[in-house]
Structure formats: C-alpha cells, structure tokens
Write a structure and sequence with these properties.
It is built from 8 helices and no strands. The radius of gyration is 19 Å and the shape is elongated. 62% of the residues lie in helices and 0% in strands. By secondary structure, it is mainly α.
C-alpha cells in the first residue's frame, strides 16, 4: 500500500512539474493562406469547411482549445499539428512546385474521400469539423478540379 501511495505522489508531482514545460504555439500570419486561397479558389462553403476541419493542423494558424494549456494534452496537440504540417501545409503553398501542388491536392482529396481526414481524435473535440457526406463530396469535387487544373499546367 505504501508503494502505491509513493507512486501516486511521484506521478502527481511529475504531472505538476510538466505543466511548466513551455510549448511553441503555431500562430502564424492570417495572410499566410492568401496564396492557397487565391490560387485554388474554394467556394465560400468549401473555404468554411477547410477552416473548420483542416487549417488548425495544416497551416501556420492554429486556434487552440482551452485544454491546450494542460500537459500532457498540449504535447499531444502540438505533435498532431507538427505532423499535419509536415504532410501538408497550406501556408507554404507558394513554395510548392506545380507538380507538388498537383500531388498534394490528389493526396488531399483521397484522404478526405476515404474519411481518413479529419482525424477522429480531432473531431471528438471539434464537432464542426466532422464532415457530412455532402461536405465531403463538395470538398473532393473542388480538390479534384484544382488537381486537374494543376495537371493541365504541368502538361503545357
């Protein structure tokens, strides 16, 4: 019993200590998405879906929930954001080549169509990010059109 009590106290102290470990926030400029939006021309509805379901993890602008201040959740959230941006960062769209943009759009619509994105762990706490079949169809159709436009530009 004494051993369990000691382990409990140690765990509590560790939990308190890790609260003071700082994490970097992903708070880039709002204008960082301008190139992506102007080039891909999402409809207002698709733009709203992208904002609610994609930009937190796939851009330089994350809107953090209140519980981001609590460790170990803040480490988990930061890991998701870093990993998301590593795969696709809409804020870096201007830096991508045409071929890379075309490929990223293909990967994007495939992930959305197959319901791999947004992640379930994200939609648990962001219910507006849970996409209906109609929203998925709109995003996929838009992304396929964008991909086709990039393919045509590459062919020239």
């Amino acid at each position: 019993m004494k051993l369990l009590k000691k382990i409990g106290w140690i765990a509590l102290v560790l939990l308190l200590v890790i609260q003071f470990i700082p994490t970097e926030k992903n708070n880039g400029e709002l204008s960082s998405l301008d190139t992506f939006v102007s080039e891909t021309k999402p409809t207002d509805e698709v733009q709203k879906i992208l904002k609610n379901a994609c930009y937190d993890c796939h851009s330089d602008q994350t809107i953090y929930p209140w519980y981001h201040s609590v460790a170990p959740l803040k480490f988990w959230i930061n890991h998701h954001v870093e990993e998301g941006k590593e795969h696709l960062n809409f804020s870096n769209w201007a830096d991508y080549s045409l071929k890379r943009k075309e490929h990223k759009m293909e990967e994007f619509w495939e992930e959305v169509e197959e319901k791999h994105m947004p992640l379930d762990s994200y939609t648990w706490t962001h219910s507006d990010a849970k996409l209906s079949n109609e929203q998925i169809a709109k995003v996929v159709n838009w992304a396929k059109t964008v991909q086709t436009n990039y393919e045509a530009q590459i062919q020239k």
